[in-house]
Amino acid sequence: YAVYDVRPASPAKSSALKVDGGACANNFLMQVQADLTDAPVLRPRCVETTAMGAAYLAGLAVGYWKNKEEVIRNWAIDRNFLPEIEEEERRKKINGWNRAVKYAYGWAKEE
């Protein structure tokens, strides 16, 4: 649910959410992200983008790739998760999340 809170603060103006890392292999999690943000979630073929980025930089440095545009063309989508819930259900879920966060504040109080 935190992605719903963070997304509006993002300077990126993309209408889609690009994901990477081990957690994005979880189809259920990616569908929840699409549903909560009401935006497509794009999972790349290679989810280990940190390692891939290092390899791309090394390849650029030694001339394996001619330029950044050639590297960008290598990025490909494995799966596109589209929102599947209606706005009313989304609001209900987000309101439940916000209530849970509010109640959790009480747990953090020192006794």
Could you describe the 3D structure shown?
This protein has 111 residues and is mainly alpha-helical. Helix content is 50%, strand content 10%. The chain is built from 5 helices and 3 strands; from the N terminus they run H-E-H-E-H-H-E-H. The chain has helices spanning 2-6, 27-37, 49-62, 68-72, 87-107, and strands spanning 17-18, 41-44, 77-81. The chain has a 3-stranded mixed beta sheet with strand order 1-2-3. Strand 1, helix 2 (27-37) and strand 2 form a beta-alpha-beta unit. The protein is elongated and about 60 Å long. The chain starts with a helix and ends with a helix. The mean pLDDT is 88.
The structural class is mainly alpha
Chain-averaged pLDDT: 88
Number of beta-strand segments: 3
| Beta-strand content bin | 5-15%
Helices, by number, come to: 5
The largest β sheet comes out as: 3 strands, mixed
Strand order of the largest sheet: 1-2-3
Order of helices and strands: HEHEHHEH
Contiguous uncertain segments of 5+ residues: none
What is the 3D form? Answer: elongated
Q: What is the helix fraction of residues, given as a range?
A: 40-55%
How far from one another are the termini? 29 Å
Q: Radius of gyration over alpha carbons?
A: 18 Å
